[in-house]
Amino acid sequence: MSPASGDLDLGRYLTYLTRRQEVVASNIANADTPGYKTRDVGMPGDFTSVFAQFTPVVAEVPGLCQSQ
Q1: Alpha helices, DSSP H only, in 1-41?
Q2: Residue 58 confidence (pLDDT)
Q3: Closest CA to 45 of 16, 20, 65, 23
């Protein structure tokens, strides 16, 4: 089974990803604001159950963080 197999509403998933990206951008924009508390958007349970069986692929990408 894949996330695109119909077990997941891709429109809802894209809406969730868009909202999460907005929240992350807000967190970054306010990183230096005194007293600002970071926020996050929880993944709905039905998304979690579909993705629970998949192993995330994490790749290190050189150049995004530079050591000083």
Answers
A1: 10-29
A2: 67
A3: 16
Tokens of 5: 């197999």
Q: Could you tell me the two tokens for 57? A: 């692929």
Phi-psi region of 3 (alpha: psi -120 to 50; beta: other; left: phi over 0): alpha
Tokens of 68: 């000083």
What's the rounded Cα separation, in Å, for the pair 19 and 7? 21
- Determine contact, residues 8/47, Cβ cutoff 8 Å: yes
Query: What pLDDT was estimated at residue 1?
Result: 39
Query: pTM for this one?
Result: 0.59
Tens digits of per-residue pLDDT, 17-36?
Answer: 899 999 999 999 999 999 88
Q: What does the buried/exposed string (b/e) look like for 17-56 if buried means 16 or more CB atoms within 10 Å of the residue's CB?
A: eeeeeeeeeeeeeeeeeeeeeeeeeeeeeebeebeeeeee
